[in-house]
Amino acid sequence: MAVGPLRALVAAGHDVALVVSQPDRKRGRGASLVASPVKAAATELGLATSDRVDDVIEAGAALGVVVAYGRLIRPHVLSAVPMVNIHFSLLPRWRGAAPVERAILAGDTVTGVCVMALEEGLDTGPIYASEQVAIGPDDTGDELRARLGDRGTALLVDLLDKEELPPPRPQVGEPTYAAKLAPADHHLDWHLPAVELHRVVRVGQAWTTFRGSRIKVHRTRLVHDATMSPGALDPTTLVVGTGDGGLQLVEVQPEGRPVQSAGAWRNGARLTPEDHLGD
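The structure corresponding to this sequence follows.
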């Protein structure tokens, strides 16, 4: 999420003194250290990088830009360098770590993006600019996040093109909090209504079980008039019964296999009328 804003700031002619990102992490079979996407982009652009946010103090920057950093920035850093943050909701709704996911799970039809002044509190700062973004009934978390990233980047560049930052406006309304999702939040409980399960799938990483193994469900389609029992799987239509309505499988990923169409999975699994999802 930070790569787009970084590239846009450089393209707009801003002097980026330092890019701070999370430390390199071990990934892949060889467990070799791999840089974060934003660090890799910064290196490609010839920019200085660090994994210590305190290094910002000595970088000589007039302003910090924070995007999906994932950690609170301590007051002594904020007092040395003022910072703005791109946050992917219409504050004060969905303060916290997972605003995109929580908006989808709650059934929100509208969300947005804010460029706000960073404070010590969790997403409590006043707002410089914001824009609403509609949430479609089948939008996935990745699709929504990409649109929010594009709009947030445009707001940021427009804001920093001004000679000086305008006065921000305070947040107005009742705050809600977007806690980070746990693995259990991605589990498909087929006794729930289909509309709620569809939201879980849209968020990403949804999973259930089939013949004793986990299977991820990447895309589904709502079937409102289905009357099957929860977890029952029609081998012809690939509709799964839920607590209310049905959910048609569109893309799945069996354990240890790549993502595939539900039809291809059906053919390989040789489904029978006795098969069901969930143990």
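The helical segments are 3-11, 37-44, 75-80, 99-105, 141-160, 194-203, 262-269.
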